[in-house]
């Protein structure tokens, strides 16, 4: 499903984020940038050791929740990986919505700084970190839509959702944005 905001395209697809051919792929990392399972494990495996070598050398103190840091992309079909750290879901009253929005905002600012015209995001925080998928879909799409309308860059933002449930949740929110 695709929605156009001016000259920018916001797209949702069901698939594997490691297979995307875009300027930047976003990783759902942890604050130690220590690697893990889910998206993090899959991206490190597909990219090779470059990601870990660079995060260790460039960001030895890790990355705070709600922020993001950039590395090159090793063997992935991308120029950069933006490692963002989503909030752990604690019921929604500990600042999780703002922190999740800040992940997307920071990644889109990194895309602008690095002249990236296409960015692929996973549904940050909705796996190990337990963020309810419907709430994540709503917050994530809202902040990305706002950024695209305000800045008219990057040309393409693609959410790569891992299963039918996640795709359905994002599709329902995106549909409501076109009404
Ligand atoms: N492609 C696209 N989406 C994926 C893939 C993949 N290859 N693998 C998993 N997902 C989906 C999950 O189904 C979930 O909806 O990405 C979403 C995010 O899940 P996680 O990767 O678990 O990320 P998160 O919830 O942000 O937790 C981060 O998990 O792996 C550790 O080191 C990581 O500690 C950090 C934590």
Short structural description:
Helix content is 40%, strand content 21%.
Report what the structure shows.
- The protein has a single domain (2-178), classed as Leucine Aminopeptidase, subunit E, domain 1, CATH 3.40.220.
- It has five helices and seven strands, in the order βββααββαβαβα.
- The model has no long low-confidence stretch (mean pLDDT 97).
- The protein is of the alpha/beta class and 179 residues long.
- It binds adenosine-5-diphosphoribose (APR).
- Adenosine-5-diphosphoribose binds at residues 16-18, 28-30, 36-42, 86, 122-129, 160, 162, 166.
Give the full name of the CATH homologous superfamily. Leucine Aminopeptidase, subunit E, domain 1
State the low-pLDDT regions, or none.
none
What percent strand?
15-25%
Number of strands: 7
Query: What does the radius of gyration come to?
Result: 15 Å
Helix residue percentage: 25-40%
> What distance lies between the first and last C-alpha atoms, to the nearest angstrom?
14 Å
* Total domains: 1
Quickly name the level 1 CATH class. Alpha Beta
- CATH topology name, in short, is Leucine Aminopeptidase, subunit E, domain 1
Give me the side-by-side strand order of the main sheet: 1-2-7-6-3-5-4
**CATH architecture, please?**
3-Layer(aba) Sandwich
Heterogens: adenosine-5-diphosphoribose
SS-derived structural category: alpha/beta
Any idea what the shape is? globular
- What's the rounded overall pLDDT mean? 97
Main pleated-sheet profile: 7 strands, mixed
Supply the number of helical segments: 5
Q: Could you give the order of the helices and strands?
A: EEEHHEEHEHEH
């Amino acid at each position: 499903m695709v929605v156009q905001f001016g000259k920018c395209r916001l797209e949702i697809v069901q698939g594997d984020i490691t297979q995307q051919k875009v300027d930047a792929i976003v990783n759902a990392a942890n604050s130690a940038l220590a690697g893990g399972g889910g998206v993090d494990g899959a991206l490190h495996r597909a990219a090779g050791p470059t990601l870990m070598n660079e995060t260790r050398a460039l960001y030895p103190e890790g990355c705070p929740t709600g922020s993001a840091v950039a590395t090159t992309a090793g063997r992935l079909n991308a120029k950069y990986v933006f490692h963002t750290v989503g909030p752990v879901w604690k019921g929604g009253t500990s600042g999780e919505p703002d922190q999740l929005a800040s992940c997307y905002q920071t990644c889109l600012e990194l895309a602008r700084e690095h002249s990236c015209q296409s960015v692929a995001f996973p549904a940050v925080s909705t796996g190990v970190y337990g963020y309810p998928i419907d709430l994540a879909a709503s917050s994530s799409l809202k902040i990305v839509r706002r950024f695209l309308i305000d800045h008219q860059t990057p040309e393409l933002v693609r959410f790569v959702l891992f299963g039918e449930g996640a795709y359905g949740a994002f599709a329902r929110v995106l549909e409501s944005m076109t009404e």
